[in-house]
Design brief:
The protein has 511 residues and is an alpha+beta fold. The chain has a domain at 376-507: Neutral Protease Domain 2 (Neutral Protease, domain 2). Helix content is 26%, strand content 26%. It has helices at residues 40-55, 289-299, 302-313, 345-349, 354-363, 380-396, 402-413, 417-420, 436-451, 453-465, 472-481, 488-496; strands spanning 2-3, 83-95, 98-109, 116-119, 124-129, 132-133, 135-139, 143-147, 157-166, 183-186, 189-192, 213-222, 226-228, 232-235, 244-255, 262-265, 267-274, 277-284, 321-325, 332-335, 342-343, 371-373, 468-470. Strands 6-5-9-3-2-12-15-14 form an 8-stranded mixed β-sheet, with no helix packed on it. Strand 17 and strand 18 (277-284) form a beta hairpin. The structure holds zinc ion (ZN). The site of zinc ion has 7 residues, from helix 6. GO terms for molecular function: alanyl aminopeptidase activity; metallopeptidase activity; zinc ion binding. The chain crosses the membrane at residues 37-60.
């Protein structure tokens, strides 16, 4: 993710180094917080569930199980335990404000399971496990509890299908502030994209970055409406049904749930193949025809930026590429949705802003998308690197060196105690994006100064090329393995410390 470009003036935004506004505390309100009898729309289905559960002899409303979350310290309800998601097939119809359809999740149990937990905020109508009807209910707003007729054994592969329908405008997820909602609407236009959470607004999932899986998205819309998502555009239909089209997107490499997205509306598409990779660029037709042409022109630079980043990071990790510019005023400047980053229109159009914005989001294809987070407090692994690659490209284009950029950033922030008060390795759930865009790349340049050019280059490339979920501790272990230099002072100063690091060689300030 990139911070937004500043005022809503449509252009001339400040560079990406601008710090985003401090996120507000999350709203504590969630559906189901209040007594259900005061909320008729929620109360009646809940009453039915209670009655159904009583009839089935289960007795009391079940308590939250340890498996109802992935164990994330910042978002304890996010994700699930007990299985490894392998693939999602999301199959929806969008009609007016309502999404209706099913998602089929294929997973492998990592322990014996009586209940499979998923995260979804939309109302569920039915579920099956391996084709057999299963008991299903939603607890605490988004914890979907699917109970198969027969238990699932450790190691067993199983298929959960969930049928659901509802208005994503009714969804609220604990820990996600209302002004950072992933749901975007403007007239008939619909968009769902955001970080750290977005999937609960449109599909049931193990919603945690540590469990990436294959994604396939099929969305049926009235003919004339476009649907944009991740991966390859397999089909845009215009077939049997006279008034409806089903858009089919498929990504061939696993992705974290928040890296999938859905855009529905009027879009101008450009498609083709470069270097053997299919691309799709999409720009909202809510922009003027001239703006559309300009924005498509920026998106068309994508293969060139990828080729340049490959010289630093090794081969691009995905089969497809692209970019999308929706009509919405996102609270972010860009988001690294896998294979197809989302850009804020006025950020991409701002003079001098497009290059660094695209480099940042495309660098995330390696750092964040191929290498995912173990936990949300590992956000440095995403944003530190994506921001650092902006510095690398800036230097290569004749700008200040990465070290000069580190020193300038440090001098700009040295007297800002609020900035340093947020530790890089534990920023807190409300401040995961608060300082990492500057503190992250400074820490990396300090490391480069300490361990030297060759070790740093190898470390960066090896880290970028090995897929999977890893933590800041994993990165520290890798860094230590490359060098005889004592990295403890560096780690203390840049990751743990709550004051500006002393300007010493041990902290990685070069000559
Ligand atoms: Zn980012």
């Amino acid at each position: 993710m990139s911070p937004g470009p500043g005022p809503l003036d449509g252009g001339g935004g400040p560079p990406l180094l601008t710090r985003p506004p401090a996120p507000r505390p999350a709203s504590s309100h969630a559906p189901g917080d209040g007594p259900w009898w005061l909320v008729p729309a929620v109360g009646l289905p809940l009453l039915l569930v209670v009655v159904l559960v009583a009839v089935l002899g289960v007795g009391i409303r079940p308590q939250r199980s340890p498996l109802s979350g992935a164990g994330d310290p910042y978002f304890p309800q996010a994700g699930a335990g007990g299985y490894d998601a392998l693939s999602y097939l999301i199959d929806l119809t969008v009609e007016g404000p309502v999404l209706a359809g099913s998602t089929t999740v294929t997973a492998r149990a990592t322990q014996d399971l009586d209940v499979v937990h998923l995260d979804l905020g939309l109302p569920v109508t039915a579920a099956t496990v391996d084709g057999e009807p299963a008991l299903v209910e939603t607890v605490d707003g988004t914890d979907l509890r699917v109970e198969p007729a027969d238990g699932i054994e450790a190691g067993q592969e199983f298929v959960v299908r969930v049928d659901y329908a509802g208005d994503p405008g009714e969804v609220s997820v604990p820990g996600v502030a209302e002004d950072q909602s992933p749901l975007h609407r403007q007239g008939e236009e619909l968009g769902i994209a955001g970080e750290p959470a977005s999937s609960a607004w449109w599909f049931p999932a193990d919603d945690h970055p540590s469990d990436p899986a294959l994604m396939e998205v099929r969305v049926r819309v009235p003919r004339g409406v476009e649907v944009i998502s991740v991966g390859e555009l397999v089909d845009r239909d215009a077939g049997d049904e006279e008034d409806w089209d089903t858009w089919h997107w498929r990504a061939r490499e696993p992705m974290a749930t928040y890296l999938n997205f859905l855009m529905v509306g009027q879009y101008r598409l450009e498609q083709g193949t470069v270097s053997g990779r299919p691309y799709v660029y999409a720009v909202s037709e809510r922009f003027s025809p001239e703006q559309q042409t300009d924005l498509l022109g920026e998106l068309a630079e994508t293969p060139q930026w990828i080729a340049e980043l490959e010289t630093d990071l090794g081969p691009y990790p995905f089969s497809e590429m692209g970019g999308v510019v929706p009509p919405f005023s996102f609270w972010f400047g860009g988001l690294e949705t896998q294979t197809r980053p989302i850009y804020l229109g006025r950020a991409l159009a701002a003079d001098g802003h497009a290059d660094t914005l695209m480099v940042h989001e495309l660098a995330h294809m390696w750092f964040g998308d191929a290498v995912t987070l173990s936990r949300w407090d590992d956000i440095f692994n995403n944003e530190g690197w994506a921001s650092y690659l902006q510095w690398v490209v800036t230097e290569r284009r004749g700008g200040p060196t990465t070290n000069q950029q580190m020193v300038a950033t440090y001098e700009q922030l040295a007297d800002d105690p609020g900035f340093w008060a947020v530790p890089l390795d534990d920023p807190g759930p409300q401040r995961i994006f608060a300082t990492v865009y500057e503190r992250g790349p400074m820490a990396l340049q300090a490391l480069r100064n300490l361990i030297g050019e060759e070790a740093f280059t190898t470390l960066m490339r090896d880290w970028a090329q090995q897929r999977g979920a890893r933590s800041v501790e994993d990165f520290l272990d890798r860094a230590r393995a490359t060098t005889d230099v004592d990295l403890d002072p560096w780690y203390q100063a840049w990751f743990r410390g709550t004051t500006a690091p002393e300007r010493t060689p041990e902290n990685g300030f070069g000559a």
